[in-house]
Structures are given as C-alpha cells and as structure tokens.
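Retro notes (design track)

What went well: tokenization of the new backbones is finally stable.
What didn't: we kept losing track of which sequence belonged to which structure.
Fix going forward: every design gets posted as structure first, then sequence, in one message. First example under the new rule, 171 residues:
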C-alpha cells in the first residue's frame, strides 16, 4: 500500500528501541526500488563508524559482517524493499549466524516477505471511513470548532479523496 505509514512506523520503532535501550545499535537504511548495495553498506558502515578497507561489495560485506558480529544486540531496519534482498551480500548476519541481530523490513509487496522468509508479518491497512474522518478532523483543526454544514460537506469529500491513507489525511 502507498502512504499507509510504513516508513514512519519503522522509524518510530527504531526510535523507541533506542530510547528503551532494547538494542546496542539501531541502523536504518533505505533500500528502494533499485537497491544499491554499496549505498546500503555505506549507511550501515556510517552507523558503525566503520571505514572500509576494501572496495568490492564482497570485501565491504565481510567487513560489515565482522563488525556486526562484535555487537551483542543490533536492530537493522531496511526500508522500502521491493524485491528479495541477499542479506549476506550486504554483510548482515542473520539466523544462526547472529541471534542478536534483528532485521525489520518495510515493503509494499507481500511476496518479498515470503521470499526473505520473514518470521512475523505485520500488515498496515488503510483507515476505515470513521478513522479517516477522525484523523482528518483532528489535523484540519475541526475537532471542537463549530462548523457550517457546507464546510463539513467539503471536508468530508476531501477526506474521502484521501482513500483512508494516513499520510494523505495528515498532510
């Protein structure tokens, strides 16, 4: 789904994880429709204060892998994943290789979760009409204000055009 708040939700989970000290390190990297492995590796390396000694993707992956192995509890958020991603090619240890490394990915495509063997899937759906109207009223400042019926009619049409997408309703 577009605009249901996947990225916002992932960032908030990362922020809360840091505040609650659930992990020693929280890393967020945007993957996008055309993933650039070197950029993803660079983002992870920046979070680790890691300077690459190798230039190839494989060499960089090995350096990231080793550095992440030194950390006890790591939370890696991969945002906007469009197709199956080889975590080992990036340098992200997972499964039996590092039980303290947790990976959260956001995607709009269910099959990505399946192909990457996600353990838990959380579906974010659009809001119901009532929820959408409540969010729109709140963001438009119409909660407590006495409004004319014409204004309410227009506001409800605008909220309807947002199709229950939280981001559109908030904007």
């Amino acid at each position: 789904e577009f605009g249901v708040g996947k990225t916002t939700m992932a960032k908030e989970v990362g922020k809360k994880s840091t505040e609650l000290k659930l992990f020693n390190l929280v890393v967020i990297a945007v993957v996008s429709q055309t993933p650039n492995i070197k950029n993803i590796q660079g983002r992870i390396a920046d979070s680790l204060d890691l300077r690459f000694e190798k230039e190839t993707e494989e060499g960089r992956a090995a350096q990231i892998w080793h550095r992440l192995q030194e950390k006890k509890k790591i939370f890696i958020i991969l945002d906007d994943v469009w197709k199956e991603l080889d975590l080992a090619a990036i340098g992200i240890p997972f499964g039996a290789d590092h039980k303290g490394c947790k990976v959260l990915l956001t995607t709009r495509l269910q099959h990505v979760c399946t192909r990457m063997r996600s353990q838990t899937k959380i579906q974010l759906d659009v809001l119901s009409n009532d929820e959408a109207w409540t969010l729109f009223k709140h963001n438009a400042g119409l909660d407590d204000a006495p409004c004319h019926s014409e204004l309410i009619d227009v506001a409800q049409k605008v909220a309807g055009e947002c199709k229950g997408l939280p981001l559109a309703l908030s904007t």
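Added context from the reviewer: Strands lie at 25-32, 74-81, 101-105.
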